[in-house]
Design goal:
Length: 503
């Protein structure tokens, strides 16, 4: 076994990371994990696509420089040029390499527009994956481990194991695949296979092929030395047909190499005491007054009545089937029969966007909806709401419920994936007053969601219980250091496995 204190050279590849680009939790995780690993003393390089159009007016980013490095990759018989920009992750020594390729990455969004994925997504992310290895080679990074995230980077593991491993620069480089969401697998028609740069012989049901398609997430899993996902419960769930989305067989087969590591919170970004987006930052000792002011500010901003007494329920989310919007719209009449306010922030599936807009039109004094991506409003909802809704159909980890706990906003969640691992249900005053942090329901049912909200509203009317639940949540530790240590242990296992398997 390598020594636990040995510094590792780690390359993290992801398609988005805070503060450079973000559509969801992957970005929070990639940025925060890289930072934490750097703080533990490891040599970390974060590789990302350079979405130049999306970042060019962002004045909060650090200065970005051209490395001068150029490369060319054959993409289906066409030579495509790439360049590499670099910077460091703010307040860290983590190197960030941004793969610049204007034809692929200078777009208005990261992956899709108007609910439709870009037609050349396979080509874009095969190019990015191949570029990651090319940059490691040209810059002589000599990684001990490459950590891939989601389908966009799954190809790296295939290329590493079949072409690079053992070659100069990649002597015994271990590979880790993190699964943030099994519902997105990067499935493309088989004629895209030449874009991968892999031999057709790997297009088989054990490695790159699934149901006749090229599957880049499967590729990542099949060739990885170690596999992780973002909560222990989800690690078990994805080995079943319900949540494995067709890869449950492969994952069960690799169960010994699969571990669930719960995400953490980046304290520099999500901290109610220092959050510059808030009208009044607050701590566990000042939560009552702080939250009252944040709530009034949120009600004003969302054009709702400024009533301190009315319970305000918030939700910030990608609008996707995963997130349980059908439960909310299905139970809306019953929920809105109560005296409460609902605030939604999100974007995604035009169907859910439309349904929520309709709801806001029908109940203007109770429902406020903002369609779009708004970092500042997301923080203000976390702080200004009394409760946070996450009735997800499935949830690999979920970050918003942890942000809610940290901000003294009581989560109402379904018992799945990381939600089950991070929120403790309030049963009754005698059973769980000292431990409960939220309200949890099991079956995916609109009646149960409505019932659980009604139960939470009842407890909200009992301030001595409510304030204890708030305090329980705010005292929980979600620091990334804990998770980063777990990742390092996985990296060491990956390196050991590679050593054992290399000739
Ligand atoms: P997922 O990754 O499935 O979208 P998570 O709960 O892990 O879910 O992470 C979502 C992240 O994206 C959180 O940081 C959340 O605040 C943010 N987010 C989602 N939608 C929006 C939005 N419309 N505006 C601002 N932030 C958003
Ligand atoms: C995914 C999941 C979410 C998780 C995030 C970061 O997008 O949907 O549950 O928190 O990745 O790991």
């Amino acid at each position: 076994m390598s020594s636990p204190r040995e510094t590792l050279r780690i390359v993290i590849a992801a398609s988005e990371a805070v503060p450079f680009s973000k559509t969801g939790g992957l970005a929070d995780v990639a940025g925060a994990l890289a930072k934490s690993l750097g703080q533990l003393g490891h040599d970390v390089t974060l590789m990302l696509p350079d979405y130049f159009l999306l970042r060019q007016n962002n004045t909060s980013l650090p200065a970005i420089h051209d490395t001068g490095l150029r490369f060319s990759l054959m993409m289906n018989g066409r030579a495509v040029l790439g360049a590499v920009n670099w910077t460091t992750l703010p307040n860290t020594n983590v190197r960030v390499m941004l793969v610049r390729q204007p034809e692929y990455f200078d777009r208005r969004q990261l992956y899709q527009e108007h609910g439709q994925g870009y037609v050349d997504n396979c080509e874009r992310f095969c190019f990015f994956s191949r570029a990651v290895l090319e940059i490691c080679r040209q810059m002589i990074l000599r990684p001990d481990v490459i950590h891939c995230n989601d389908w966009q980077t799954g190809l790296i593991n295939g290329l590493l194991q079949t072409q690079s491993n053992g070659r100069p620069g990649f002597e015994r480089t271990g590979s880790v695949m993190t699964l943030h969401n099994m519902a997105y697998q990067g499935r493309f028609w088989h004629f895209d296979m030449p874009l991968t740069g892999m031999d057709w012989r790997y297009f088989n049901p054990d490695q790159m092929e699934a149901w006749g398609d090229l599957n880049l997430l499967k590729t990542g899993v099949a060739f990885a030395d170690q596999i992780t996902t973002v909560s222990p419960t989800y690690a078990a769930e994805i080995c079943t047909p319900d949540e494995g989305y067709g890869l449950e067989g492969l994952l069960s087969h690799r169960r010994d190499d699969l571990v669930g590591i719960l995400n953490g919170i980046d304290d520099d970004v999500w901290n109610s005491e220092t959050d510059h987006h808030l009208a009044t930052p607050y701590s566990i000792d000042t939560v009552a007054t702080g939250k009252r002011q944040c709530k009034a500010h949120l009600q004003r901003r969302m054009h709702l009545d400024q009533r301190p007494d009315v319970p305000l329920l918030g939700m910030v989310s990608r609008m996707a089937d995963q997130k349980g919007f059908d439960l909310i719209t299905g139970a809306a009449e019953r929920i809105l029969a109560q005296d409460l306010q609902l605030v939604f922030l999100g974007t995604g599936d035009p169907r859910y966007e439309g349904q929520l807009r309709d709801l806001a039109q029908r109940y203007p004094s109770k429902v406020a909806v903002e369609i779009g991506f708004d970092e500042s409003l997301a923080h203000q909802i976390e702080a200004g709401a009394d409760m946070f809704l996450m009735p997800s159909r499935f949830e690999p980890c979920g970050l918003n419920q942890m942000y809610s706990l940290r901000y003294g906003t009581v989560p109402v969640v379904r018992k799945v994936g990381g939600l089950a691992d991070s929120v403790e249900n309030f049963e009754s005053e005698s059973q769980s007053l000292q431990t409960a942090t939220g309200f949890v329901f099991a079956a995916y049912s609109k009646e149960l969601l409505a019932e659980t909200i009604e139960k939470a509203l009842g407890v909200y009317q009992q301030p001595h219980i409510w304030s204890q639940i708030v305090r329980n949540g705010m005292s929980r530790d979600w620091s990334w250091t804990r998770s980063a240590h777990e990742y390092v242990a996985v990296y060491r296992k990956a390196i050991e496995r590679r050593k054992r398997q290399s000739p």
